[in-house]
Amino acid sequence: MTSTIPAFLLVAARIPAVAIGLPLGLGFLSGYPTAQVVRSDWYKNLRKPPGQPPRQVFPIVWPLLYASMGYASHLIVAALDRGDLRAELALKLYYAQLGLNLAWSPLFFGFKRPGLALVDIAALAGTTFYLTKILGPISATAAYLLLPYCAWLSFATYLNVGIWWMEAKNKDKKRVVCAGVVRRNS
Fold it and tell me: What's the helix, strand, coil split of the chain in %, to 5?
């Protein structure tokens, strides 16, 4: 069977240590600059929705999620190697969600664009939920490995929506105040 997935991505997922290490390593590289930004005035001054966990939670949660998603990719490629043609779509979705995942931190923290990050996380969550759904008949274990990730993405999406919404409302208030100041000075 010929796959349309690049060979190096198939090989990466076939080796458990590489399958787990790839999202861990890429996630670290994507999130590394975040540590400085969360200590910045920009982040500290963001209006955040209720339930925002302490920043120390994120470096604990994400490695666990990356490891579980990486092992899920190994199980997906194992199903593909057994001849399950549905696994090819699952592996494509896995790599698509990984790319969307890696884009989120630079969008939110690097470019300081919660709105663009929200578009990304919506696509990420949709892709991951669909991947998890179709994995059931391919590899129930892989689907179960992604359930905590789906739960975390739901929570992360809530946080992203909350920050985006609250910041948009805050900017509108600042515009009204600025407009009022301009009118009084005219």
Answer: 80, 0, 20
